[in-house]
Every structure is written in structure tokens, then in C-alpha cells.
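Session log. Operator J.P. requested a structure for one protein chain; no other inputs attached. Running the standard single-chain path with C-alpha cell output.
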Amino acid sequence: MRRLDLPGDVPLGAAACEAVVYEPVDAGEGVIFFVHGGGWAFMDLDTHERFMRLLCNEARTTLIGVHYRLAPENPYPAGLKDVVSAFRKVLTQRAKLGLPEGPVIIAGDSAGGNLALATMLHEVDAGCDLPAGGILFYGVFGASFETQSYRAYADAHILTTPIMQQLWAWYVPDVSLRNDPLAAPLVASDDQLRALPPLFLVAAEIDPLASDTIQLKQRLDALGRDDSLWMERGVVHGFLQMTAVLEAGRRAMREAANAVRGFIAGAEAR
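Structure written below.
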């Protein structure tokens, strides 16, 4: 493991990002670009160390994880701008950063899944290069608190509907901005979603955010895409932080790692 700093991008409005790189001994071509979750307001590279180590080891792929400015001190779109800037540097400066060549896969959990998907949408709109695929773990994709899972699991363990309402108030305090696809990707246009690379979606059943992932899959299916959804039954939000004691977490991580390898192989074959 090694740490490094990625400089910001003044024209983009991005600040410098702290980053960490994990390199499995048997790593092949390709890079996983990982964005940690924490409600846009909490957590960092240390809280997600095990998550990142397990993903890169299972996938046998070098991983770079990035930290970004957090809300409420830095509301939308500050954190997103940081992630976009860091992603572009990984795409264009891998030799300088000591990263292997090959396809780049973007991944993120929870709010990190939101930022990962928003980064792809941002680059679709900008006409910039996209990753070869995306791995989105129980992401925040919509700003509606009236979905089936928000109602059913309002008082679930780990994450509740009131907590998510507070996190949205910190990240996007201007409610009108929650109609922006870069804040709430479920409101993206068909053309924006159609332009995305292949996605592998992971959801937890007992999670206020479960419907976000289900609705995203439904929109993608309606466009004739062939994206995958892995729904882990009987688990709560954040279950992939519990892999030391939870077989469901290890199982979902193995599936995600298989998807990483599949996306890399598919990109290299094209």
C-alpha cells in the first residue's frame, strides 16, 4: 500500500485529493478507481481499507481509492468535482502515478456509488473518456424518500430514512438542485444512461436505498441494456464492511470481483 496526492483542477473547481494505492502481488492489467461512501459527509480512506483491500485482492487488480471534500462544509458539487478530476488523472497519468496500463473500472459504495455514477454521467456530458465498467455497491441514486424501501426500512439498522434526509440536507441543501442528474442520477435522461459503460449493481435487501438500485436497473433494462444486479437478501446497508464475519459480504465481493475481471477482459478484447 502506498499513499499519494492528486493535484486539483482549478478550471474544473476541484481540490487536491488524497489517494491510496493497493497492488495485489498477482495483479494483471487494469485499475479499479474506488470512491468511498459515508453519506458525502463522513468516512475516509482508512474506514474503507478492508473494503478496498478485499476488492482488489479478489479481482487481482490494482486499486486506487480517493478521498474528496466532504459536506456540509463542502456541499454539492464540490466532492463530485474532486472525484471527476482524480478520475481524469488516473485515466491520463497512470505511468506518472505508478499504475498499470489497461482498462479502468470505477467503483463506489453508498454515497461513493452516487459519486461514481455521477462521474460517469459528467464525463458523458463532457464528451470525455469513460471507464470500461462500473461497480456500484448499494448506491444513493435518487432524492425521493417515498420509495418502497424508504418506507419499508425507515428504521432499519445502520441506515435509516431520517439519517438519509439529513445527509441529503448537508450534501445538496438547495432542494432544486436535487433535480440535477449529477446529484440524483435516477433523473438522468435516457440518452445519458444509454451512453454509460456496462454496470454491475449490488443492493442490500434491508436498506432504505434498495429501491434506488432497483429503479436504476429498471431504467437500464428499459433501454435494452444488459447490466447485472446482485441483490443480497437478509442484509442491511453497509454489509460489505462486515466481510470478516458475514459470508454474504464475502459472496457479494466475489461477484463484484468477477464483474471487474469481466469488464477488463471485455474491454481488452474490443
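Operator note: The first strand starts at residue 2 and ends at 6.
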